[in-house]
Amino acid sequence: MSTYTVHPIRCGTLDLPKSGLTYLLEEGQTVRSPVVVLLLLPDDPEDDWVGVVDAGAAEGELAGRNIPHGGPDPIREGLAEQGVEPADVDHLILTHLHHDHAANVELFPEAEVLVQRAELEAARDPLPYMKRVYIDDQLATVERADTTVVDGGYRLREGIELRLTPGHTEGMQSVVVDTADGPHALVCDLVYCRQNLDPSLTEIHDVDGRTIAVEPADYDADYVPPGLHVDVQACYDSFERMRGRVGPAGTIVAGHDPAVLGEPFPR
Q1: Are strands 154-157 and 160-164 parallel, antiparallel or unpaired?
Q2: SS3 for 253?
């Protein structure tokens, strides 16, 4: 059985409305959140495969938000810490094509890019309120790359599979990675922060380490969908499928949670 280690790389910062993180909760609050790219490396020293999940954000003003510390350099530096260069990357898995996940595809000239067909179609003709988070130049770069278009589930290699998990977008995909400590579901923006997983929380932390008081959900649930979505029922359904896939011993890895940063997975 092939297992992998997941190395988080911080590559930007976003000030996100709390209600964008957790649907309908605390519309007036803002949470400083990281942009995250995930490096996947095999535990077998004889396996030289390299995978990356998502391509980060551009630096500067984009989609109405300033993104400090974005661009390719933080990704390049994070790869180098593990002895990897961008040209070593064999596969770049794009969970979806929002501007903070698909900005630096050209950094990986040798990579096969994997994206869901439904996501490409959504990016080409987005819903009106989603137009600001799909960037035409980024979409063009994806379409010029060595891109494999995926329809639904896809076994990339032993120990790594892709699952179509719509809701946040029409064609978002999650990545299930076998690790030495069981399966890890990289669910990206199905889960932004800890309160998506625990609606009863009364505090969370931002990327600068500040403690932020939050209101617990006033309904009985074990999951809060992301505030930005195209289909809230699909969010619930996709999350339940992923939780069932990894089981009680598995781990859910969020998309913009500061707790993801630091030590590699498994922890």
Answers
A1: antiparallel
A2: strand
- Identify the CA nearest to 252 among candidates 202, 172, 196, 200: 196
- Taking each helix axis from N to C end, the angle separating 136-144 and 117-124, rounded to the nearest 10 degrees, works out to 140
- Measured in whole angstroms, the distance separating CA 96 from the mean position of its chain's CA atoms is 8
**Environment class of 263 (CB within 10 Å of its CB; exposed 0-12, middle 13-18, buried 19+):** exposed
Tokens 């996947």 locate to 40
30 exposure class (CB count in 10 Å sphere: 0-12, 13-18, 19+): middle
Q: To which H or E segment does residue 229 belong?
A: none
DSSP state of 217: P
Task: State pLDDT tens for residues 201-220.
Answer: 999 999 999 999 999 999 99
Banded pLDDT at 138 (limits 50, 70, 90): very high
Contacts of 48 by beta carbon, 8 Å cutoff, 6+ apart: 42
pLDDT tens digits, one per residue of 100-123: 999 999 999 999 999 999 999 999
Question: What homologous superfamily does CATH list for 4-259?
Answer: Ribonuclease Z/Hydroxyacylglutathione hydrolase-like (3.60.15.10)
Domain range annotation of the chain: 4-259
